[in-house]
């Protein structure tokens, strides 16, 4: 008689799902498919030669720090460098406020681990990052959603939702939001920080794309606004995945020393510490001033690709289709006429060798069937234009 595995699995598995995006990407990897699905940075932009040179140096000069077990909260020199970097970005920090993570996804998982009990409410944008929902699902979270428009989440909706549902935590992506590309306006940022302080609800501010601005004026992060007012109500997350390389699996949290200690305890049970070699590589990129030029190169490339996608949409898509024009990041958001279904559209698009991500999985409370996300990151402009032309044909036939 075999093991009845289904009786042994933890209850939390019933709350967990695989990523729809990952399943789509399996299909979209065919070389003859124009994929606008994944939120991957372009591998051609990785600073390979710089990483190779830095790696040689750190293995020669810092072998212990690069290859030995390390501290759970991260390499002290990297935490100090990131504290200086965050301070220059308007978020005053010391090393004790920095925790190095194995990618932002780990930070989201650990946040769920230290803040959420089964049934606790999390306030999220509608739509929001699917990876965050996957992380919070594992801890039995329930969701309170607030709608987005071109200026991000609406403060009055956030206040009303807190009054009614008393969430344990807010998860927001105010800058070049995934999946919509929307950026919260300065006035709304200030108001949201005030609301969080008034109700005593912490904000998990996810900022993986903030350095990828290629239009408009830079805005202070929620954490910078909060710190300027003497607060410590916001946990700020950022990453090297979109600027150096995602394979390094390296991100960081900026938070109060108290919250940092909770992260450290949770992380000890997860992986002991993040990749030591990746940490020494990132440290040298910061020390040698290599990160700035790399970010500038990425910005220029993505600006041209965003422009190509928006211009092609304006030329080929039916006028009934609405879309965002982001000032940075990797994505734009498309809203089809009511009644259309993006999943059905994807099946037809696959026949034309073009792929995208349907929008419904990004909605924690359902809906969004007539929406989809497009990424302009991984293709040159001429391929983007051809992909939009193909997709436009599929949309027009579906509307006929």
Structure characteristics:
400 residues, alpha/beta, Aspartate Aminotransferase, domain 1, Aspartate Aminotransferase, domain 2, eight-stranded mixed beta sheet, globular
Written description of the protein model:
- The protein has 400 residues and is of the alpha/beta class.
- The protein folds into two domains: 146 residues, Alpha-Beta Complex (Aspartate Aminotransferase, domain 1); 225 residues, 3-Layer(aba) Sandwich (Aspartate Aminotransferase, domain 2).
- Helix content is 43%, strand content 14%.
- It is built from 14 helices and 14 strands.
- α8 links the parallel β6 and β7.
- α4 packs across α11, α7 runs parallel beside α8 and α8 packs across α9.
- The longest helix is centred in the last third of the chain and has 26 residues.
- The mean pLDDT is 94.
SSE order and pairing:
Blueprint: H1 20-28, E1 34-35, H2 48-61, H3 63-67, H4 76-88, E2 98-101, H5 104-115, E3 121-126, H6 130-137, E4 142-149, E5 152-153, H7 155-165, E6 169-172, H8 186-199, E7 203-206, H9 222-228, E8 234-239, E9 251-254, H10 257-268, H11 276-287, H12 291-316, E10 322-323, E11 331-335, H13 342-351, E12 354-355, E13 357-358, E14 371-375, H14 381-399
Helix pairs in contact: 2-11, 4-11, 5-6, 5-10, 7-8, 8-9, 12-14
